[in-house]
Write a structure and sequence with these properties.
Blueprint (H helix, E strand, L loop, with lengths): L1 H21 L7 H14 L4 E7 L2 H6 L3 E7 L5 E9 L5 E8 L8 H32 L8 H14 L5 E8 L2 H8 L1 H19 L4 E6 L2 E7 L3 H9 L1 E4 L6 E4 L1 E7 L10 H15 L6 E3 L2 H22 L3 E10 L5 E12 L2 E3 L1 H9 L3 H22 L6 E6 L9 H11 L7 E6 L4 H16 L3 E7 L5 H7 L4 E4 L12 H17 L3 E5 L4 H9 L4 E3 L7 E2 H10 L11
Length: 568
């Protein structure tokens, strides 16, 4: 009896030590815990303890959880007890203990001690597992990528330890990745993103980390010496998208900030605002898709913010004026149409379109401006009709942002009908699109407008990613050929441009589309239009965009001189 009391005392002392070790969450000593479990299992004649950890019931049913061997004395045995515990987030832990057949069966008191030890161990494992699950939910997305919260935590540590000097931060996304998904399928697209992420992470190495903000948007932090390899990779990355090693090229839009060695940063915003600004400029549609943050970008951003602040009052005060650029039949000189273009008059000065149109394109403000322009064009047409002008069809540009408006055709028709304008006098210009969703919306809008007798034109044909599908599947009335197809006097590539222009015009004619070339500035370009039977032109050779009074004078004249070169 005394011996049993000594064993009891020893067991409870070991159990107390085990509980203490398992509840020291900040300094878990796994070897110490394992040694205590081995000593307890030996005291209770147990040969092995095996734990299974499942994240959810589905994993348990499939038998695909983690297997942990808490202790193993290397002795063959049979299971003598199994206990299962379910956490509040439905993670599951089970533990089975084994005993050699040569050992005498457990007494009721020993079974109580075994159960107490198992439950203590499972409580410890369940708590740690719960902490891991909560951590993973907080700091990783559903696909296992470090997320925005993980980025915030990383930046905080850099700021506290002041290890940010000499680092580079990069904000980027995969350009037109929706098209990649359409081409290779979503599963292969997910594989491609994983391949890309692993490649970037490999380049970054132990100098930083890569975080996924969602979709195809990422932030990378690394030492500046890694940029020499990272930036070229982001410019045109070749990523794997299948188990067989098939690849596709994926480029990015990226903004980065090299943190100076003498920088004093106080908040995450000191880093994030800079890379977001650079990233926005990289996305703006210019030539550069990899942009380094500098002071000039900050100045441009301030100007953009100023435009956005001034815009509501500018609309209320009608500071935006409609200018009209004539469209001309080059064979007869007849004025046959016009394009409505926006000019902003602020304090007696004209704000260049390049200083406000791209800014408004960043938000839904561009849609407000487009509808404002349509309304004012309708006001002008109504006045011309009332005053007996020989009115021509006017085209109005609409941003791609309008594709988000499910009731766009109804909105356009309502504005036109409010002014009692015959629909034949309006043409809506829409630019090419780059995603399947936008393509379907574009087809719907064009079809609805045509049913209402409103002309539609595809603007800047040849500049987008879906040109052939665009004119094959959507019933346009007019094709506007981008100026990039027209030869430039003195350019060695004139012949190739002329060949491309010839085929585009021929294609438009065969499809029954009215064809107009924009940006016509020289006699040589006019001659090429005639050679290729493109009858309509718009450009500075005839007129720049005109204020309404001068355009009305052109309508009264009705025609331009017919220009021919000396050789014709």
């Amino acid at each position: 009896m005394e011996l049993n009391n000594e064993k009891d005392m020893r067991f409870y002392k070991l159990l107390e030590q085990l509980v203490t070790a398992m509840t020291d969450y900040d300094n878990v000593d796994k070897p110490h815990i394992e040694s205590l479990l081995i000593e307890i299992s030996s005291m209770l004649r147990l040969s092995k303890g095996v734990t299974h950890v499942f994240r959810n019931p589905q994993e348990e049913k499939a038998g695909i959880g983690e297997v942990l061997c808490c202790y193993d004395l290397g002795i063959e045995g049979k299971p003598v007890m199994t206990i299962r515990m379910v956490s509040s987030v439905m993670s599951i832990v089970t533990m089975t203990v084994f005993m050699s057949p040569d050992e005498p069966p457990l007494t009721p008191e020993e079974r109580q001690k075994v159960e107490l030890t198992i439950r203590t161990t499972l409580s410890f494992l369940s708590h740690r597992r719960l902490r891991d699950i909560v951590y993973n939910l907080a700091y990783f997305d559903d696909n296992g990528y470090p997320n925005l919260r993980s980025l915030s935590n990383y930046l905080n540590k850099m700021l506290i330890k002041q290890t940010y000097r000499g680092k580079a931060a990069i904000r980027y996304n995969l350009r037109h990745f929706s098209l990649v998904n359409q081409e290779i399928g979503r599963n292969a697209g997910d594989y491609a993103i994983r391949s890309h992420y692993n490649s970037v992470k490999n380049i970054v190495g132990d100098s930083g980390e890569v975080f996924r903000l969602g979709g195809d948007n990422f932030v990378a932090i690394c030492s500046q010496d890694r940029l020499e390899k990272l930036l070229p990779y982001l410019t045109e990355a070749n990523v794997v998208y299948s188990d067989e090693g098939e690849c596709t090229n994926i480029s990015t839009s990226a903004g980065y900030f090299c943190i100076p060695g003498d920088a004093v940063l106080r908040t995450q915003g000191d880093i994030m605002e800079r890379i977001i600004t650079a990233f926005q400029f990289a996305q703006s549609g210019g030539k550069e898709h990899i942009v380094c943050h500098n002071e000039e970008l900050d100045n441009q951003k301030k100007k953009s913010m100023r435009v956005q602040q001034l815009f509501p009052d500018a609309v209320r005060n009608e500071e935006f004026h409609v200018f009209y650029q004539p469209k001309v039949d080059i064979n007869t000189g007849k004025l046959c149409g016009a394009e409505a273009l926006c000019r902003w008059f602020k304090n007696g000065n004209i704000v260049p379109p390049k200083d406000f149109i791209p800014v408004l394109e960043e938000t839904s403000d561009i849609c407000k401006l487009d509808l404002y322009m349509l309304d004012h064009v309708c006001q002008d047409i109504r006045r011309w009709l009332d005053n007996g002008f020989n009115v021509v069809r006017v085209s109005v540009n609409l941003s791609r942002k309008h594709m988000m408006n499910a009731k766009l055709p109804e909105t356009i028709i309502e504005i036109i009908d409010k002014h009692k304008i015959p629909h034949k006098y309006l043409e809506i210009e829409l630019t090419e699109t780059t995603t399947d969703v936008e393509f379907r919306d574009l087809k719907r809008v064009v079809g609805s407008l045509q049913q209402a007798g409103i002309h539609t034109s595809v603007d800047d044909f040849g500049m987008g990613y879906s040109s052939l599908n665009l004119i094959r599947d959507i019933p346009w009335d007019v094709m506007k050929i981008d100026r990039s197809f027209l030869p430039i006097d003195g350019d060695d590539s004139d012949s190739s441009r002329s060949i491309m222009f010839k085929h585009v015009v021929a294609m438009a004619g065969n499809m029954g589309l009215e064809c107009i070339a924009e940006g016509v500035e020289t006699q040589n370009q006019l001659d090429i239009l005639r050679e290729n039977r493109c009858a309509l032109a718009q450009g500075f050779l005839f007129d720049p965009p005109l204020p309404v009074e001068k355009f009305e004078a052109r309508m009264k004249e009705g025609a331009y001189p017919v220009y021919y070169s000396d050789e014709q």
